[in-house]
Design goal:
Length: about 300
Amino acid sequence: MICNQCPRRCQAERDDTKGLGFCKSPALFKIGRHALHPYEEPCVSGEKGSGTVFFSGCNLQCVFCQNSVISYENKGKIVSYETLKSIILDLQEKGASNINLVTPTHYAHALIPLLKDVRKELRIPVLYNSSGYESVGTIESLAPYVDVWMPDFKYVSSDLSGKLSNAPDYFEVASQAVPKMVEVSGPVVLDERGLIRKGVLIRHLVLPGHRDDSMAIFDALARLVDPQDVLISLMNQYTPDFYRGQDHPELKRRLTTFEYESVVEHALKLGFRGYRQDRSSAVSDYTPDFLEEDV
Ligand code: SF4
């Protein structure tokens, strides 16, 4: 296939087992991991965990990615359509709260027919968990088969997104993609157990040395969407151990409490609600302690 499905628009050739585009992904599904994952936000994990499927490769190459073995080195296994369908149904049988497609953007072409098919047997929502670097047309094509969108909103600064993710147009792209996700899904809906059934949960990882850009993101988001229609998740799990770049000395340290708390406070003032991360939990344990009563 000749691929144009993400904002890179590589027009690259992708055959069954190799890919020559920016994401280096073959046309057939390649996955790095699938498992019940308990460390997502509480409305995503639920009691037994979110049914995650991590796709190998990525159309954004962030120099601080914590999944770089899968996303950057492209480690994983090529699986057939039928195998992936079985994996998804097996996660449901194991009690997954949802099917959580992690970094699926470069497989949208193949996911659309698969989701159309597998949804006939699914009783749980499908989550699309991505970097936010998405084409509006691809979101529209996926919309009938996705219940919950979980995009990152990473940067405003084009200089920063160019240096750290090789995507100087990140803000421009995400500014169209995220409102489109809200438009196609509507406001967040939680079920009686507090699990998300529909809507958009926007994630943002605060980076050391860049709290001003983080605050600018929420200023921009408040203009792009109604803060009451979405949930946000503010992450503080940045760790310098994964940093692959050379040019940003500020990224070779952990985030300070002041940096993180000032972004949380700013988002709250703008009317956002959602989740913050407990600093002591270092990696992935979420504490829904701001505006929890609204969620
Ligand atoms: S999905 Fe991959 S090959 Fe296709 S346009 Fe995007 S980066 Fe290029």
